[in-house]
Records
---
Amino acid sequence: MEGTRVKILNDIIDWIKDQSAQKIFWLTGWAGTGKSAIAWTICSRATNDPEVVLGGSFFFSRSASSAAQRDVRCMIPTLAQVLARQSDLFSQALVDELTRDPDILHKQISVQVEKLLSRPLFALSSSPVPIVFVIDALDECSGHSTGDGDLDDDGTHRIVSDMLDALVSISNSNVYLPVKFLVTSRPETYIRDTSVSDHELSKVLRLQTVDMKQVTADIRLYIATKLLSTPRLRARFTTSDADMLAEQCDGLFIVATTALKYTFERGNDAAATRFRTMLNASRNGLSTGAAVPLDRMYTLILEDAARVNEPGGDELAAMLKLLAILLSNRMLLSVVALAELLGRPIDETRATLSRLHAVVHVPEDDGDPGLRILHASFGDYISRRAPRHIQVSNPDSHEISARAAIRVMGERLHFNIAQSHSSYEPNASTTASGITLSLEYACTQWVYHVVSLQDPSALDGMLRDIFCPRLLFWLEVMSMLGQVQRAAAMLYFIGVTVRQESSQWYHWSLMRRVGADAGTIAVFPRCQLICRFVPRGDRAECTTHIPFGAPICEQERRDLQDVCPIMFRAGLR
């Protein structure tokens, strides 16, 4: 907001324009200290400052709808592409590099930094205007190995470390490059242990070390602007209200933004009452720990939303189940899709979400995919530090999501979901209207949740009774979604992940054999039961909708009848 963080913002702009300054500015701080707001403001200022060029920006987010916005491997190509659109010189140099090495996108990130950024930037070495790239929330880039191409945490951390070291190495170039990189993140160990924390190679600002009086003054200005913005509000709030809340924020902007969202989420008429209730709940026993004021705020919001003092407790259980799915989800859901995964009416789901606006972004249209947790600190709180009665651990979140996904597949997967007139009809001529967002989520993400459980065999019964009989129906949906290769990888991945002593190991062994042949998905290599899924990229040429009369041997028939009995009842012989 205008008038806040003035010194920090001016220092960053001065650093960008200083040719002799380090190439990297690492802005680090705890969750909620305002790093992303500063990054956004710098982007805005650079766009409007004729003495600075915003080369590109990349804002990582755990809750992003696009997997690419979580994947560190997409960052360098994105920044190069954005700058190429602005500079013909850079664009031509980049084309030359890609011509010499067309496989660069599949190489190590240090090589990408050199060939997609460093070398093409030589073409701009005489530019009088500095170029700044902004990289926000680097600690929120993707993790978890799921068989669909994502990285595990260790792999992500290695790439981040290599990338930061490669960016810092640009400072050692023999040719002057008019480029700067502003990087924001939490002070995670794998980031601190790189060259980015070396004060000789990078400029480092730790927001937790900024003068607390100045931070509190900025927060107070932000709060006062919101509370006293209209004559009507000024009749209900005073400057003392802004002072009291600012003091309790303990230097965290996220406490102020969350508190104000809570205050106004039920309209201006109820705002004053909710504000004073919140202050009274936060005033007693407030310590100076960085997480304490935010945790108290989150606790108040959840207990108020769940109406924990009312008899029954059904609303609390429903709310925690809803939050579990949002915290562990892999793609943005709509209110309708969330309701279907929960097995609740849409209006009840919308009512629960309406009480969580302070921590959850809820789209206005029930059909729009856009549900997301507003800040990563809330996920940390509810999974680790929340009181036991409102805590949802990560394993619990994944189990709730896995059960919801398997149940939706059981309810919605059926024979010939594409309504094809022929087993060999191309996908392009069929319709995916029967594949709802909840079914798409269930079909594409169930493996991720199952393998994230401490004991995947806990879901053996559901998978045996619900998924296994509908295996071919699931493959049909995956083909319609253009996810043939991913389907093979998912089956192979779960086949090698579940414990061998599982009572259903026989079924998973069969599924591993299904996924082992990624080129032609067939239940067995000699049995082209599911037509020839000939992938073209990630699209299959056609989805076979269970061709009758497929030649299979007696042993394969028995195996398939054991795994997919519904297919045989549907007419497969």
---
Amino acid sequence: MKEEKKGKGVSRRDFIKIAGAGGITAGALGPAFLFPERAAAQQKTLKILQWSHFVPAYDAWFDGTFAKQWGEKHNTNVVVDHINLVDLNTRAASEAQAKKGHDLFMFLSPPAAYENQVIDMSHVYQEVEKKHGKKIDLAHKSTYNPKTKKYYAFSDSFAPDPGNWRLDLWSQVGFPNGPDTYDDLRKGAKAIKEKFGNPCGIGLSQELDTSMAMRALLWSFGGAEQDENGNVGTFFINTDENFFATYGMKILAGRNLTEKDQFIYVPRDVDPKRERIITDDGYLVSGAPNRIMINEALAESLGFKKPEDAINEKVVFELGRKFVGEITAVIKNHNQLSLREKYQPIIYYYPMYDIWSYFSIKVDLRSSKALETINQVGKLYSDAFPTSAYEYFFLDDHFAQQYKADQQFGKTFGLFAGLAIFVSCLGLLGLAAFVTNQRTKEIGVRKIVGASVSSILLLLTKDFIRPVLIAFVIAVPLTWYLLKKWLENYAFRIAISPLLFILPGLLILAIAILAVSTQTLKAASANPSKSLRTE
């Protein structure tokens, strides 16, 4: 919402003040709010769009109690509309682009793609922090864009889900108000166990909300869900029968997905006649396993030694809620992220036609009609989505941007390395001129007694080569260590070969000899009688 003059609507600052007083942090862990960047709706009217909660009683409380009481207290007509979770992104994008509709959107997870259509929520966070204290790290990470320095949403997860504790036990071990921090929890729990024998822990039952409470506590203290190898999360990619052939991705084992393998969602499209599967935490999933494809990285993390071993096996995964997936194929690994990252575990699935989150089109830009093709795609896009701007970028430019800093570092390092070598050569040249001038008489005497030009050249040059070799011996282990540390930033990296040190060493040695020889050769070739006469 934009700042408005009094009498024409609720200003952003006024809304912050009344929201802070009215308990803006109400709600469970996870949802976040987006404020479209447009004028307020009608005067004293706040229009909210949020997903239909899986617990209907929550919607009844929010709409009929909380929103109503808040509106009466602040003389505001609060209108709350609900929509299916899968339709929320599309609806929000349309309203944000058109700058019409609802003022406030509540998401289960805030989409950063709408950043240009919403207001910066930094002021909201500042005002709420004054009243409720610092936000948890999860709230910051899920709503902040570090590149633009902008909060594109506001997370109501300002505090973890409340925990339950027994006053009669905690008050007797020095915590009359219960544990406030994780350290309190550890110390108090230990004291209670030692004094009363009661174990203290986090109780979980076979339903969703206690799992959310567990994750709330875990995330609030900077933890994460991961396995023993540190793998966190899995990518999900929408596909159809043409996806892998279009992008040249190889199926190592199994078969491709077809239209018959479209993803079955819960609960609206579960066939009640089919067998229902209950996961280990008691969560209802699709009665028939969904057909999915996985990549090599995920197959390996699941313990399959060969791609063929994974075919027809079933796995439980989470995509909004938990599902059972039957593996139909294993795909050869491809880089989903930068080469700095290792191969990411990926699940490919065939979504229903009404919930595609994006469409993927491959355009051959090697032809002479590339620009014409781009314009044709733009026209088709504008016809289908007249309220959305047609924007595109070239994928190779995107990839190049990932390594721009490294390329710039390479150029800068090369420039300064060249300057260092040039300055060093000037120093060697000056030192050679000084030494040969000091040893002019010695060189003349040696030539008179029969010394050859080559022997004199060797005599003078070796004194300069010695410090170069010592510097090389010192530099090699240091360079090897720094190079090894730098390459550790990349999951895909070259091996450090001895030639990487031998060839530069020989090149530096040749440059040093060339710089010194210009002076030593001149001194060794001079007429000894002339040099002795001068001395």
---
Amino acid sequence: MLGRQYSSSVARMAGLQYNRRAFTAGMASLLTSPLCLDLAHAQQIERSSLKLGVANRAHLYYLPVTIADRRGYFRDYGLTVTTSDFEGGGQAFDALLAGSVDVAAGAYEHTLRAQAMGQDVRAVIELGRFPGVVLAVGKDRPFKSIPDLKGRKIGVTAPSSSSQFFVLYLMAKAGLAPGDVSFVGVGGGERAVDAMKTGEIDAISNLDPVITRLQQDGAIRIVVDSRFPRVNYDIFGGTNPAAVLYGKQEFIAANPVTMQALVNAFYKTLRWIATATTDEIVDTVPSEYFLGDRALYVKALKANLLVYSRTGVITRQGMGSALKMMATFDPVERTMQQSVSVAASPELLHAPWWPQGWWRIVDTRIGIVPVPIYVILVALLAGFTYTGDIKGEVSIMIAVLVIGGFTCAEIGKRMPVLRNVGAGAIFATFVPSALAYYKLLPPQIEKSVVEFTKYTNFLYLFIACIIVGSILSMDRKVLVQGFFKIFVPLAIGSIAAGIVGTLVGMLLGLGAFHTFFFVVIPIMAGGVGEGAIPLSAGYAEILGRYA
């Protein structure tokens, strides 16, 4: 049909573009397609009915439990799971030891405590790779650093819970003893919110959606936020297994097919969470978990999406990090170094490479691009460059910009010392410029990128997305309140900075006009994305130059 409608040359070009796009899309789909595990109930399940202990199920910490139940994944593997909800992880742990529940979902630290107590309790799958616990103080409480917590009342979900362990670890690192503060169990719902607002407690260590609710209401100031990877790397040096599924080894050994079915159900849940949209997840959760505000729950969920495990595998580094944390404030754990080697199921730790090993590779990213996709894109771009087929079309140019930008940023983030002062953004900005200046880029790529940014106004789209996205991501109430509080000092500081910067430029011989408009203003305007780049485009338009 194409041949009848167009000339043969146009048809060949259209076919080439279609095949290239189809090939790229097909390979991406193949690499990111869900993997099917063998169903455990192909074998006879020893026990089809299980009692699962969990603490504050409404917490986003335990979202995988809710999703597995609501989406019927337990049923898919022939299981009927009854959930017992406790106020804190310590209570769920005690219920497991007492035999009230068959398995429990809770902090990995409980398995270490069990080993120290002589109880052979093991984790079989990781549900969360970061704690997601947030330490905050009352908005009017004087606070500068962790030692200021001394003598304060700190609300935690329950005694011997992950929220308490988190604070104890931070205190120990700051030189405080466990007895220097008073811990108050406030649960993980409205009671916790009320305790903070009424002044019953001075600080709180809790999880979402409680933290987001308090933050939105302006009742707290966040001190340490372990919902985000960078904070965890700063605190723990890497991942730190949070929520896990754990049970007594005697139960695991007596019911291997049942436990494998349970692990498979949770693994299926983790893969679904990793690929589902925010609305799909929220629509699955009972409305009573929203604390009366769906929008708040959506906001809390977005802040926690990086918390959940992608592979279910508890890494050796993660186990060591958890043991180190516990040993910091628990003298018993200091004598139980062997706990780390037995506190997780060897069946999962030494699982076959497929599919867990493959997902570990997929979870390794260059920027936001999974390594397999990155490798394929690099190979395709190299091939197109070699054959002279690099075009200025959107799909190809986006791939070029993504690969170039993220590669430079990753190199910068791994540079000693410099990575702590924004080397990722610096490298992503200046390395490509240097490569173009010194003619080290393939001419075809350089020409295509220049033409793409010049003639498609892509730069304006980028600027609009950055600025509008930044504004829309801010909490309106906090933004309005904060603006009036900081407007005067901000204005004074900006004027002083402008004057000082201009004087320094003049001392260096740059001239007041050039220094103020081309150096000081771009720096003060909001960095590269929201300052230098938009101003460069504006100056180019006004002065008739190329940005």
